[in-house]
Amino acid sequence: MSLPALDAQTAQPVAHSAAGTVLLSVVIPTFNEAQNVREMISRLDVALKGIAWEAIYVDDNSPDGTAAEAKALAATDDRVRCIKRLGRRGLASACIEGIMSSAATYVVVIDADLQHDECILPRMLSLLTNDSADLVIGSRYIPGGSADAFASSRASFSKLANRIAQMLLGVSVSDPMSGFFMMRRDRFEQVAGELSSIGFKILLDIMVTARGHLRVVEVPYEFRERLFGESKFDARIGLEFLGLILAKLTRGIVDPRFVSFALVGTVGLAVHLLALLIALRLGTHSFPIAQSIATLMALASNFLLNNMLTYRDRRLSGFGLLWGFLGFCAIGAVGAIANVGIASWLYSEHSVWWLAGAAGAVMGALWNYSMSSQFVWRTR
Ligand code: GDD
Ligand code: MN
């Protein structure tokens, strides 16, 4: 890989390393950020004066028309591009896709909502071009930085998540959840295949996956207030974070999506028992009918919760929801047969009832999970 052109006297990156070559790709993930697009580009224009940059918007088909806004700009400014993704959601996967579409030597991810301070970009870049670092993080939690724009509840969550990540995963940087970081693209591509594309925490994932092989430097900045639009952060993203921690701690053996699927299944069991109780008390005296009603309720609850949580990035709606539910029931029926078959066989071999029962349940859950990942919530 050739190094970027540097001005011999100042060691600053030069505008164009060769004819028209882009030195820095600025990847900007968006969901409902239409009002921030123009302002972002004019700020980059000022902050990155003298540097050959491009902006890559990655938009998940925002209903507010963010992609149209970005493409309108792209039509007149060839430094701007927009990838519009259909049928998918998610910050981490958007960042990965944007970076993978770059051919520049360096890439930076920055929020579209102007909360990250673009003025530190040249400093971040020079740390990479003079080879002082492989990864530079815009940090809110080192002297000179601040996260005062966070509401106090969000601030404590952010601090707690940082603490957990630092303790469990052994990352020593102060802001491993930052959504603002710059790195050499070749370094990114080395780890890209192992990244989990679910959730918000791509930077943490990159550092853990690289297992200490990246020289990391943090640059402080003040996290700003949002002017337009609203944050997409919610409780589900907190759950995804726990899933990512679990996956990374077990070196990828535990799939965060399966954890979510299994948790939903546990809730389904509670729904089942509750529905059974209510049906027996209030309605029918026939146990088979009550058990059938309870089974249907549990299936519906599992299906809807998985659609909301486990597969939120591939969420079904309208007719897709109906077909999905039918498929989910069919898969569940086959899973139940497999479950009973395996449990009965194990029981006949070893006659430890709880082991046989649990093994059957786990096999059934794995079957349901892998089949519904492939056929009900398949990636388009
Ligand atoms: N393409 C795409 N798809 N972009 C998304 C999605 C999505 O599903 N969800 C959010 N984004 C974009 C937003 O449009 C914004 O540009 C950026 O990702 C950050 O989202 P915010 O909703 O503004 O996040 P925040 O300000 O609450 O969270 C900040 O702090 C987190 C750590 O505590 C951000 O800096 C995060 O990046 C950071 O992880
Ligand atoms: Mn934000």
What does this structure look like?
By secondary structure, the chain is an alpha/beta fold. The chain folds into 2 domains: 24-232, Spore Coat Polysaccharide Biosynthesis Protein SpsA, Chain A, CATH 3.90.550.10; 257-376. The protein contains 12 helices and 7 strands. Helix 5 (152-169) packs parallel to helix 8 and helix 11 runs antiparallel to helix 12. The chain is elongated. The two termini are 34 Å apart. The model is unreliable at 1-9 and 14-18 (pLDDT under 50). It binds guanosine-5'-diphosphate-alpha-D-mannose (GDD) and manganese (II) ion (MN). The site of manganese (II) ion has 5 residues, from loops.
**How much β-strand is present in the residues?**
5-15%
What Rg, in angstroms, do the CA atoms define?
A: 25 Å
State mean pLDDT (0 to 100 scale): 88
CATH architecture of the largest domain: Alpha-Beta Complex
| Continuous helix count | 12
How many strand elements?
A: 7
The H/E string reads EHEHEHEHEHEHHEHHHHH
Give the name of the CATH superfamily of the largest domain: Spore Coat Polysaccharide Biosynthesis Protein SpsA, Chain A
Largest sheet strand order: 3-2-1-4-6-5-7
CATH topology of the largest domain: Spore Coat Polysaccharide Biosynthesis Protein SpsA, Chain A
Unreliably modeled segments: 1-9, 14-18
Q: What compounds sit in this structure? A: guanosine-5'-diphosphate-alpha-D-mannose, manganese (II) ion
